[in-house]
Specification:
With about 725 residues, the protein is an alpha+beta fold. It has 4 domains: about 20-215, glycosyl hydrolase (family 31) (Immunoglobulin-like, Sandwich), CATH 2.60.40; about 235-430 and about 440-455, Glycosidases (TIM Barrel, Alpha-Beta Barrel), CATH 3.20.20.80; about 530-625, Immunoglobulin-like (Sandwich), CATH 2.60.40.1180; about 630-715, no CATH class. A 7-stranded mixed beta sheet has the order 1-4-5-12-11-7-8. Strands 19-18-17-16-15-14-20 form a 7-stranded parallel beta sheet. Strand 4 (about 75-80) and strand 5 form a beta hairpin. The longest helix is centred in the middle third of the chain and has 22 residues, at about 385-405. Bound molecules: beta-D-galactopyranose (GAL). Beta-D-galactopyranose binds near residues 265, 363 and 432. This is ABC transporter substrate-binding protein. InterPro entries: DUF5110 (IPR033403), Gal_mutarotase_sf_dom (IPR011013), GH (IPR017853), Glyco_hydro_31_C (IPR048395), Glyco_hydro_31_N_dom (IPR025887), Glyco_hydro_31_TIM (IPR000322), Glyco_hydro_b (IPR013780). Belongs to the glycosyl hydrolase 31 family. Pfam families: DUF5110, Gal_mutarotas_2, Glyco_hydro_31_2nd, Glyco_hydro_31_3rd.
């Protein structure tokens, strides 16, 4: 062939190859204050937001004010090729990334390659987790969300394009010690295996504001009933009604708080797969049993997995609406189909919720691969097995919550799978792993992914371990004793039984604080448990010299930039630094501003790294200057709806301060219709040097559960 012909053929070939490719022109539209959306290619009708039926809280977003589009739009690129969507978002030097779902061992995500894939966490932060949320935030103060229920590949600042505007330096490995195996990358690149997708960008200007906008866009965080913030114990799977009653009585007699008991699989006549029907031998009179427990102030939570036994009474009706493959020989209901929902939840409603059951632990909706339906499975709705897997947790959370809403009773339960869209659904994630350290890192990451996580206590080799784990779970979204298999009780280790009681009582006393912090999650989008990186002025920057620097020389600057995986914020004011078994002292990074010891009110430091030696009895907790912590008297059960409760309001530090205390009936959905109130707590130092605390008047016609108020100024 002649040379000129050859060139023409080549050009034609290139043209054709590019024909199926198109770089999409993007028209970002501000759909709520500080939230921009673009649809590229042909987005699939079924996605994370539709599965959850998300209703953005546009008013709360509006109240956050306006902000500019946080990225250079020209630097965002989208291509649709081979029926897949290729995305690229810019990444600057020094930027750190957080999020990409519920990770357990890492907080910094820059430099990660992940496949966001629903699964039981397998001890590696590779994207396979209980909440593989396609959302990330940057230390530069913005967030990006890919609304797809597909397995998404993420290259979070790892890949280097040959036409990059900011290429890494070309170095010679033979002679240059700065040569890097992972050269500098200037982008987050994402591959979505679908011919289009909806993208969202959340403005800041701070990282916290980007997180809040994401949460509010998802409808705001969940607001548990007050009792959800008390203690829960799970009991052995073959316990009978009498055993459960005896167990609750023991808690009461020994003076350990308890708000709900979880029944493991044996309450059902058959499980794995499940009938969702009471076992008549162990629970001959379920309605009377549930009622009796309620009278004693203890609610019942039921374990289940969703897989329907051929022996379940609903089986013949639901069978036409189930998937092609079974799980443990049980049918998998296609819960995207309204008829399937009606049959399925109809059973739950009739046999459980109508007789007073308070919630569920919905198990096994995440994986493992060898148990779950395979990706080749099909479902009658046409939703693919992959999409079903990414969203099944969200479907069961949403539909069960709606069932409780019909009874105007809030629920608070456990689930092993969530995703974007699940933010407002009142469930806490748990799993079968048991590393205390990973549990704390999970708690930190839950705040970046719109989820809640419990560092449950399950079993322990020693009293020390039992106490250390117990201390952490008391500063978490759900104080769960998941000791159904080990039968460990709070008092099992006599050498720490008194300390366990004390920390449990503290958890209960702090209920007004926890409840208000959850209300802020709901109304303002602020995650109640989160990383210190979200604190104002906590500027995480990726500076190589700092990452390799010596902690002794410039401790604070170095510490801020290192990954902080073992301390977290609990609500507006508290910094919690758990102790792990075997530790007698630890380092704590105190963000800027003064910090005070929670127990004594003494100043401990400001913007520095301190070492603490708290002894076995205490979990280190520090309070921000001007921190206000409303507390109630010790109670073994959460207050009843509308019950008046006295408050002791603590103030810490030197700053005058104000805190908005949230109030409602604590149990119904009436708050969604405006039946709630905020009271302002004010602490001010008078001219004579004395502190004075006041509370604003209750609002007429609004819930008011505040009894007598006393103030305690903790810092002299
Ligand atoms: C597991 C679950 C455990 C427990 C158990 C009961 O899959 O994670 O917490 O409920 O099932 O069989």
């Amino acid at each position: 062939m002649k040379k000129s012909n050859c060139t023409i053929m080549l050009m034609l070939g290139l043209l054709l190859a590019n024909f199926g490719t198109f770089a999409q022109l993007m028209q970002w539209k501000e759909i709520a204050s500080g939230v921009w959306k673009v649809s590229v290619g042909k987005p699939e009708a079924y996605n994370l937001l539709t599965a959850a039926g998300v209703q953005p809280n546009t008013n709360a977003l509006k109240n956050m004010g306006t902000t500019r589009f946080p990225l250079d739009q020209n630097e965002i690129s989208v291509q649709i090729r081979d029926g897949k969507t290729y995305l690229r978002f810019p990444l600057e030097r020094g930027e750190q990334l957080f999020g990409f779902g519920l990770n357990f061992q890492t907080v910094h995500q820059r430099g990660k390659i992940l496949q966001l894939h629903m699964d039981h966490y397998g001890n590696k932060d590779n994207g396979r987790t209980h909440a593989p949320v396609p959302f990330y935030v940057s230390s530069k103060g913005y967030g990006v969300f890919v609304n797809s229920a597909r397995y998404i590949n993420v290259y979070a600042g790892t890949a280097v394009r040959t036409n990059s505007k900011n290429p890494p330096l070309l170095l010679d490995r033979n002679t240059d010690k700065n040569w890097q195996a992972q050269p500098y990358s200037d982008a987050v690149e994402i591959l979505v295996p679908a011919g289009g997708v909806e993208l969202y960008v959340f403005g800041g200007p701070s990282t916290m504001e980007a997180v809040r906008r994401f949460n509010l866009f998802n409808g705001g965080g969940c607001l548990p009933p007050r009792w959800g913030l008390g203690f829960t114990q799970r009991v052995n799977r073959l316990y009978s009604d009498k055993d459960v009653q005896k167990e609750a009585a023991e808690f009461e007699e020994k003076g350990y708080p308890l708000d709900f008991i979880g029944l493991e699989p044996g309450w059902q006549s058959k499980s794995y797969p499940c009938t969702f029907e009471w076992d008549k031998t162990r629970f001959p009179q379920p309605a009377a049993f549930v009622k009796d427990m309620l009278n004693k102030g203890v609610r019942i939570n039921l374990w289940t997995n969703p897989y329907v036994s051929p022996e379940a009474s609903i089986y013949p009706k639901i069978a036409p609406f189930t998937g092609s493959h079974s799980v443990w020989v049980g049918a998998v209901p296609d819960l995207t189909i309204p008829k399937a929902q009606a049959i399925y939840w109809g059973q739950f409603d009739k046999d459980h919720v109508s007789i007073g059951v308070s919630g569920y632990k919905i198990d096994e909706v995440d994986g493992f691969d060898s148990w779950l339906w395979p990706d080749v499975a099909t479902f009658p709705s046409g939703v693919s097995a992959e999409q079903m897997r990414q969203t099944y947790g969200v479907l069961v959370m949403k539909q069960s919550t709606d069932m409780f809403r019909k009874h105007n009773r809030r629920t608070y339960g456990l689930v092993r799978a969530s995703n974007a869209g699940g933010v407002s659904l009142p469930y806490v994630i748990y799993n079968d792993n048991y590393s205390h350290e990973d549990f704390i890192t999970g708690l930190i990451n839950s705040g970046f992914s719109g989820t809640l996580w419990t560092p449950e206590v399950r079993a322990s080799k020693t009293g020390e371990e039992w106490l250390r784990r117990f201390q952490s779970v008391c500063f978490s979204p759900m104080a769960m004793i998941n000791a159904w298999a080990s039968s460990t009780k709070p008092w099992t280790f006599p050498e720490v039984a008194a300390q366990i009681k004390e920390i449990s009582q503290l958890r209960m006393r702090m209920m007004p604080y926890w409840y208000t912090e959850f209300a802020k999650y709901h109304f303002e989008g602020t995650p109640p448990f989160r990383a210190v990186n979200l604190e104002p002025d906590f500027k995480t920057e990726l500076k190589k010299e700092l990452l390799n620097a010596n902690l002794e020389e410039n401790p604070y600057a170095v510490a801020v930039n290192k990954e902080i995986k073992d301390q977290y914020m609990a609500g507006e004011y508290l910094l919690v630094a758990p102790m792990f078994t075997g530790q007698t002292s630890r380092k704590v990074v105190l963000p800027k501003g003064k910090w005070y010891d929670f127990y004594t009110g003494q100043l401990v430091g400001e913007g520095e790294v301190i070492t603490v030696t708290p002894g076995l009895d205490k979990i280190p907790v520090f309070v921000k200057d001007g921190g206000i912590i409303p507390m109630m008297p010790v109670m073994l059960h959460a207050p009843q709806p509308n019950q008046k409760v006295d408050l002791e309001i603590r103030h810490y530090g030197q700053k005058n301060a104000q805190y908005k205390l949230y109030d409602d009936d604590g149990e119904t959905f009436d708050y969604e219709k405006g039946q709630f109130s905020w009271r302002t707590l004010t602490a001010e130092r008078q001219t004579n040097g004395e502190w004075k605390g006041t509370i604003s008047n209750p609002e007429n016609g609004k819930p008011n559960t505040v009894g007598n108020v006393t103030w305690k100024f903790m810092t002299p």
